[in-house]
Amino acid sequence: MLEPLPPRKLVNPLLHFAEERFAVFALLLFSGVLTCSSYYNVSEGVGGYGFYVSSVFDRITSVLEYGVYAATIFLILARFKTVIRPAMRDPFLWALVGLIVLSFIWSDFPDASKKAGQYVFFTTLFGLYFSSRFTLEEQLRIVAWALLLGAAFSLVYTLAFRGAGIEQGTHSGAWRGPLIHKNHFGRLMVLSALASLLAAFNSSKYRYLLWMGCGLSVAMLALSASGTGRGNLLLLLILLPFYSALRWTDSLAIPFFITVISVGGSVAMWFLSGWDDVMFSLGKDPTLSGRTFIWDAVIERLWQRPWLGYGYHGFWDEKGESIYVFRAVHYIVYQAHNGFLNTAIELGLVGLFFFVASIVFTYIRAIKWVRSGKTSAELWPITYITFLLLYNYTETTTVEQRSLFWVLFVAISLSLKRVKWVKIGEKSEIIEKPGLVEQL
Fold first, then answer.
1. In this structure, what DSSP letter does residue 166 have?
2. Helices H, strands E: what count in the chain?
3. Please, what's the b/e burial string for 95-111 (b: 16 or more CB within 10 A of its CB; e: otherwise)?
4. 413 exposure class (CB count in 10 Å sphere: 0-12, 13-18, 19+)
5. Could you tell me which residues are beta bridge partners of residue 111?
6. Terminus of the chain with fewer CB atoms < 10 Å: N or C?
7. 186 Cβ contact list (under 8 Å, min separation 6)
8. Rounded to the nearest 10 degrees, what angle do helices 227-244 and 182-201 cross at?
9. How far apart are alpha carbons 323 and 161 in whole angstroms?
10. pTM of the model
11. Measuring CA to CA, which residue among 30, 33, 66, 34 is closest to residue 402?
12. Which tens digits make up the pLDDT trace of 117-160?
């Protein structure tokens, strides 16, 4: 059985109230909805697309982000002892961040790499603060409320500025809300739906409001016409019962998962063997809208600098090595459309190793964490890591500066405490390792 946690230190209720609101605001800020970038940037397929136009909202949000970073550093220093232990839980994450910060040394564009690396470091510090200050259950609730506010803001924004919030060119009619592309909007709505759903299951207060937030997010995901988003949400909803089944006793869980793996493997083999036919039947391009051509070109350039890559944000500059990718695919792209390839081209195989190791490290702990409790809150870490893995196949949702997705990965990775299996009678259960049971 799980050993009881020691009593938490008394916290000033007013301070706790203020910090929760601060966290909600910061996550809303990192989601990108407050920049209203769709108002100043044309849709894909319209002349001028591909050249980002900044606005007064970018400057305002930038100032607000600096305020969040300053407050984060102050709060970390004020409770420095409470962040030491969480910070030590994932050495691979810090190795990756350190590589990013230092990548300006070998980058073709050192100034850009240095500035972007600094933003990543400060964004990571906020994730550390978030993990050390709030339990995973509290984190789930805060994320759900932040994304619910983001979804409500997106709905009002799109209805008020239909010419901006709805795509006009290649994806005419698809909702993109205040974000720059429908797929970015769809990705945010998938996360919003998942967080609201799990928080609703875990909450007795405001449950119906959270259910409404989940429904609103699903509706706007459908309006975004993001095939990737709809497919990923469906898959994640299917996986939730299977993840819950991890709590079963070994006598039931092992045969169950052998059956699932066998059936899933057979379906996957059938799907891959008829990939082209399946994609055409869905009205999709088997090359995933040209992504495979991008991947081939990126891999070719990766072998020119395999170990450390081209530096964080040092490859995709129009004057840099990415020109070879542009020539190969005959249009301008600003990412590899695969998170693992994007990490490799910027940070080399060394950076890719640290990133993959951190994900695997966190995923294994998340599996054990599911078995440590009986509520939906324990499903949040494994659900989010799966979400991240799914989106990194066709998009880049890895180490993004000033990004909600990176903040959440850092927070979850540094929140999961180590556990070990013990045998009690005929049951296999887990307890937390000594010295790491404190919920800071």
1. B
2. 18, 2
3. bbbebbbbbbebbebee
4. buried
5. none
6. N
7. 221, 224, 225, 226, 228, 229, 230
8. 20
9. 36
10. 0.88
11. 30
12. 999 999 999 999 999 999 999 999 999 999 999 999 999 999 99
